[in-house]
What we know:
- Helix 5 (162-175) links the parallel strand 8 (138-142) and strand 9 (180-184).
- The protein has 8 helices and 17 strands.
- By secondary structure, it is α+β, with helices and mostly antiparallel strands.
- It has helices spanning 27-31, 53-66, 75-88, 133-136, 162-175, 219-230, 242-246, 278-291, and strands at 7-10, 13-16, 34-36, 39-43, 48-51, 94-102, 116-123, 138-142, 180-184, 190-193, 197-202, 205-208, 235-237, 250-255, 259-266, 269-270, 302-304.
- It folds into 2 domains: 7-123, D-amino Acid Aminotransferase, Chain A, domain 1, CATH 3.30.470; 133-291, D-amino Acid Aminotransferase, subunit A, domain 2 (D-amino Acid Aminotransferase, Chain A, domain 2, Alpha-Beta Barrel), CATH 3.20.10.
- The strands form 2 sheets. Strands 8, 9, 10, 11, 12, 13, 14, 15 and 16 form a 9-stranded mixed beta sheet that branches.
- The structure holds ligand PPE.
Amino acid sequence: MSFGQGKIWYDGKLVDWADATCHVMSHALHYGSSVFEGVRCYDTGKGPAIFRLNDHMRRLYESAKIYRMDIPFEQSELEQAVIDTVRENNLQSCYIRPLAFRGLGAMGVNPQTCPVNVVIAAWSWGKYLGEEAMEAGVSVRVSSWRRAAPDTIPTLAKAGGNYLNSQLIKMEATDDGFDEGIALDHYGFVSEGSGENIFIVRNGAIYTPPSSSSILPGITRHCVVTLARELGMKIRQQVIPREALYVADEVFFTGTAAEVTPVSKIDNIVIGEGRRGPVTEKIQSAFFDIVEGRKEDTYGWFTPVV
Length: 306
Ligand code: PPE
């Protein structure tokens, strides 16, 4: 099923893609008041299975809690709804987008009189930054747009409004001929990509910015930390100055959509060999071995679609 086809779960019912609409006066459309997730389902060789479903849904409820948004379903109900949506659409591997938004109630900033609607869509989505990027790497720039200061827009919440900042970063990068942009945080330290976490490798050790650097603490980031430790690699969360990017041996992005994508150039400075480095390759293989079912999921990361 490609984007634009099949069924969408909408407040408890599976409806045709074309019928999954909302009113133009919905609060979220005017004020960015939505929270969402991006989840992947993989064809593991033993049938489709959803990757880290419980962790994604927990984050959805945490994002809602930060915004005082009461999702009118139990987390377990929405987890089941994700499974149902994948099964109903006959998908083997896909991207899943659960979204809770403030719907049609009143206008005005205070959202608390608006109902909360929930949708779950699923479609096939290939490599986020392109198939060849997985080996060749992507060319990125440090954005002139920074992440918001920590006491402005909370980055631990995956909220619709946060992605206005991401859109500025992404459009600036692509309009200037880069594949992606990296945001610095309020203090000028490295934060993350427009929709990815970032890691650098230097002298065999791996570093990634901590949650205090205005990042979304990614679930793929957590996978990489877990897999790197298991491979006996040194990995640390540490504040990263911009110039450490340029002198890194390797840099890579992680995310549900981006998976593990190497970075070849930053601000037109070649990183390491200018292609996927050996540490990135090891992490990438460890990740894809699990999600593509070549290695057993000993972490309980998968929920089968049955
Ligand atoms: N930072 C940001 C800002 C972000 O949007 C994502 C996910 C991550 C880090 C990585 O988080 P995780 O997926 O839990 O490892 N970005 C989602 C949206 C992509 C989109 O274009 O839409 C995603 O990867 O699903």
